[in-house]
Structure formats: structure tokens, C-alpha cells
Amino acid sequence: YSITVSIQNDSIKLNKYTNEMVYTLKETGNITYLQIGKFLTFTDVHTIYDEMVKKGVTDISITASEFGREIPVSSALGKEQEYLQQLLAVNE
Fold it and tell me: What's the predicted TM-score (pTM) here?
């Protein structure tokens, strides 16, 4: 998972995240976005997402990818759930 956010946001609000996390630039049409972080679980990414929203970051979304290609977050959630169930089965 990652967080995609427009770079048109206040750079002071984004500074902490770009200093502490891996990020890349992504262009869609005329808009440039930051893709911040490489989160392993939806819980982890949602915690940072909520924190950014509270700080006033706008034009923000949670994104997911597999093998370098974006996939729907719902697909990633399903894959994460399958993986966690497999882990539980192995550890029982």
C-alpha cells in the first residue's frame, strides 16, 4: 500500500512524510502526485492516512500495487486477508 497525495498541498504538511518515508513522483495529466510509503498492511497505511487528513492534507488516497502495477485497494485487502489466514494456519 501507499498514499497518493497531490504535491499542490502545503509542502510543510508533507515535509515530515517525505523526510521519513520512501516516496516517488507520479504524473497524471497535469497533476503531479507523491506516492508515499511502502506499507505492508492496510492498518499501517490507514493510520498515516488519517494523520495526514487531520493535518489538512487534501487530494489524498490510499493506493495499492502488485508487482509494480496499481491494483484496486479491495483486491489488495482480499490478498492481505488470504495471506493472514495462511499465516494463522501455518502457526496453529
Answer: 0.81
